[in-house]
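User: Predict the full complex structure for these chains.
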Amino acid sequence: MAEPLLRVESLSKAYGGVQAVKDVSFTLVPGEILALIGPNGAGKSTCFNMVNGQIEPSGGRIFIDGQDTAGMSPRQIWRLGVGRTFQVAAVFSSMTVRENVQMALLSHENRTNVFWRQARQMESGKADEILELIGMASHADRPCAEMAYGDVKRLELAIALANDPKLLLMDEPAAGMAPRERVELMALTGRIARERNIGVLFTEHDMDVVFAHADRLMVLNRGELIAEGDPEEVRHNPQVRATYLGEGLVYDQAKTKVTT
Amino acid sequence: MSLYVVQFLAGLANAASLFLAASGLSLIFGVTRIVNFAHGAFYMLGAYMAFTLTRTLDGAVGFWAAILIAAAVVAVMGALLEMVLLRRIYQAPELFQLLATFGVTLMVEDIVLLVWGPEDLVGPRAPGLEGAILVMGRPLPTYDILLIALGPIVLLGLWLLMHRTRWGVLVRAATQDRDMVAALGVNQKWLFTGVFTLGIFLAALGGALQIPRTAVSHHMDLSIIVEVFVITVIGGLGSITGAFLAAILVSLLNAFGILIFPSISLVLIFLCMAVVLVIRPWGFLGKPVVAGHKSAGVTVRPWQPWSREARIGAAIVVAIAALLPFWLGTYGLFVGAEMMIAVIFAVSLQFLMSTGGLDSFGHAAYFGLGAYGAAMAVKWLGAPMEAALLIAPLTGLVGALVFGWFCVRLSGVYFAMLTLAFAQILWSIAFQWVPVTGGDNGILGVWPSGWASSPATYYWLTLAVAVFSVAALRMLVFSPFGYALRGVRDSTLRASAIGFSRQRVQYAAFAVAGAFAGLAGALFAFLKGSIFPDALSIPQSVDGLVMVLLGGIATVSGSVVGAIVYTAASIWLMSQTDLSRLVLGGLIVVLVVAFPKGIVGSISDLVGGPLFRRRGAGPAGREAAVAGSEGA
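Assistant: Here is the predicted structure of the two-chain assembly.
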């Protein structure tokens, strides 16, 4: 079998005595959309930040395109072709929408060490193409600081696409957006991912978004992978149901008490 | 051997006052997140107040009562300051907090001068502790033994206060999560006031306890604040135990440094600080302070290069400036050249602060390095002015490369304190290393080459260099490198996710700013014909900060206007009053509290904001918005 795009092997992270992520392994192939779900505190973001290089794992290994990323910083991992969006959107707020995308493009081409040419005239055509793709062409000249949060989230996707990524990491891409925007954003992401054969790993709390767009789901609880499979399998997994709806122990006990 | 033992004990005694001041600073920072620059001023006030009170209160009881009353009185002043000023700026960017408290320092300096006069005052010995005991055959003042004991006692007292009282628990809780403490119904206002008062009490006590040992002078404030900054950087901001350990370390280094390098003992502390920072960037017991770092340079409207109209406007202004020698006399041209030098210095600092979000409190270091580099090239190598003007940016650059390597590892207040400490170390080297730098007498006879020696030609030279500097730095701001620098400032997270290295970008910016500051310093040396340690001093750094603030921190090159206005105002002020520091300090406080956008920032807000803005109205509307923000 060919090397998958992303291979995670028994990944762990401990903070002091707290085991935030325990022995998580999974793979992701190009063009696949993989959702990582779980209740708050399940270790989703920690997992993400380890793949992205922001947090150093306490154990386990991560391979991107066959390359072991141990000890690599986020910017080195980005150079392997990994685009990233954040749970709380992070963009350059003192720049316009287009300039944000231009910066990612310039960095991709290693041209940020240029000291004389005007940056805003460099790569503007390519930036506009990406913005067009995301449906933000009309916003290109707007200052980021005055944009609605939903638009900022979309801009993050545009920035993440600038380095022709093989892998997109999206931490709650739809958080803070209106319901309709969410569906549109994920539909767009799905379309681009399939067209360009990009692997997408995302976390999300909105189950409509997850079940509509993910090819495969992984469920984390207390740092452990408790289920994995296509949406239908996961939906019917008893352990997942217990995690999300509770096991009914307290409820049952209370009921028993009342009846006796 | 005995000499070393006595030096060791003297060092420990010295540590007591340093620890008192540093623990107060740490305590205040822990809860309020303000680095109180005025801490040194309160230390000094404590000493002066104790001097006055010990003259009226007699005897052993009177002496110790005087010390405590002095500290208490100063603490009350601190509480008033907290209520009147600091409460207004808790939410402001760190730069403003540092500047406002520095403004208070300046005001206190002149007030002390007014009340106690310019002479050094010698306080009484502590009754009953006038003598000395023999330690291995060498005398050690009994008072020192008391101080050696005092440090651990105060540390223990603070520990008990923090761990065994309800108030202490609240303070510790607030240090970890202020919002949570507020949500639990604790009145934050009074908690902050209480902590600030306690911190000031400790500082004033530290000052008051010094009077039997050293003369009380009005230089105490800046010398102690630099040492305290060094201690808190080494010990870790917010950690009292860290402050204790670092105070001992620094005092011992001082004590032994004097034996080893008598003239440049501070170098030892610098080396020690450098080692600590490389191994533990947040100090012995400190924690990283990254969250909540607010940069002062952020605008809502993205910066734009000048439009054609604005370029023409700027060209006209430069042309008029170039014609000034036909009207102005010698003195006017001298002032004009001084303004141009201020412009170069200010824009180099603005590049660092506004574009880079790096608030340097020690930019004078590179100005002074350039000035001394040029002066020494003339004096020791017999270099002509032209060569010296090339050497100066290089010395500035090299200095910035050496110090910047440490500084860019840190951010926020740590960065500010470290830059200040480096500048102060250079200042003390220039001051103490007499054979090379001439010490207090400076280096004289640094005159321009023949062709540039007339006031008009020298003015033209400074004008040309200023125009070049502003243009070059503006070009840099709008280049990919400038954007990367701004990107790192806006969001380090995003920047690293698209392949930028924060440290590398900021290091390069630091070097560039240092080179331009060095150029300004060289022009300054040739203008005055001499150079003194003042060029490296804290006031020189602060002048630059005020120029940037006055021009507009959120603009690209508003400091050009800030530098010209500030230079004119301070020259005028000097001629009008002896209390220039009082006025300047007041000006800084007012600027920070009431006029934080500065001159150019306010104007471009009016022009680009409510007056002409038609958002999304097609190309015409965009043009108007562009024209508005580009003036910046």
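Residues 1-81+166-178+196-260 of chain A form a domain with the Rossmann fold fold (CATH 3.40.50.300).
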